[in-house]
Amino acid sequence: MPDVLVDTGSSGLLLRRSALQGLKGLEPADSGEYGFRNRYVSAPEYGALTPAWIGFGQLYTQVPIGIGLLGSDGEQPDAGGGANEADGEAGLLKHFNGILGIAPRPTGCSTGADCTCAKATEVAQYYRRVPGSDGPVWQGPQAPPAYELSNPVAALPSGYEDGFVLRIDTPDHAALQAGVESGTLLLGFERWREPLFGQQAPRIPLFSSSWWFAATNGEPGQPPDLLTLPDSGSAAILAPARYKPASADTSAAPARQLPLFFDMPGAESAAPYGPFTVELAEAGSAAIEGRPLHTLATRFHDGDLLMSLGMPFFYGRTIAFRLPEDPRAVSDRAPEPGCLMIAPGPQGA
């Protein structure tokens, strides 16, 4: 299926129901027992859940896993747990047939050692359609494993299930203005690690879920001051407002070159790994005049800690994600933790 957004900030495959017309085995709309509501920052997405085999070319998941079907599935749960008639294909999927969520966490919302999701109706991601006095209503349960949204890469055969590499080409300005980007998704982590990064490339340890610690000061011993999320599903860098380019006149504010150093706890050297430069500019400033907005897209928020590294961070880089091993899958050793590896640009054959 073409036009599926690769998203390293979420887990689970979401597809337009309308793009699957004619597919054998597709359940009729309004028949699904389980539904979901993805609480993206920019827009909610609603849909039905169903188990399915997922293929990347000729490589398929070893078992069916839960996917989300968006659109034309009747009433969907709203933020308060009631129902509305909003079309699940509105919002994020306006220009895509789906979202391939491959973040380095096993499922879309599971947290903690017990791998459970929030069940309170007003905050739940998953819902079950149950009979009500005025027709079906949605309640927020823990979805059965066969229905829960999860990272499809983790369900691939051995040798491909441990992670992936995302290679995004240096931007071609004319192509970007036409809304076209080019890059490659390579499946597997260890199989590509040495050919693309060499034996000595640092592994940046995963802190939690999909987050890594980073700092804007690379001196050894300096504590990290940011939690960063490499998020290919976002078109912009989302940064704390304290990093806005300084200027009394917004229209004359320059772009800011912000160095990032990733924290390396447990490494032989205490020095953070970097710098990796992030260029920030306010919308409407003189810094972006005559330049493609894609490469400078920045939004600012009032917090101090979180920075989402959207597509401008990926341009011209090769980034590998090692998925954390499931502790239940290994018994004779410690499970492999998740990590990140970054090269300055597309490398290898």
TrEMBL record:
Q: Which Pfam family is an annotated match for this chain, by its short name?
A: DUF3443
**Record's InterPro entries?**
DUF3443 (IPR021847)
For this entry, the protein name equals Peptidase A1 domain-containing protein
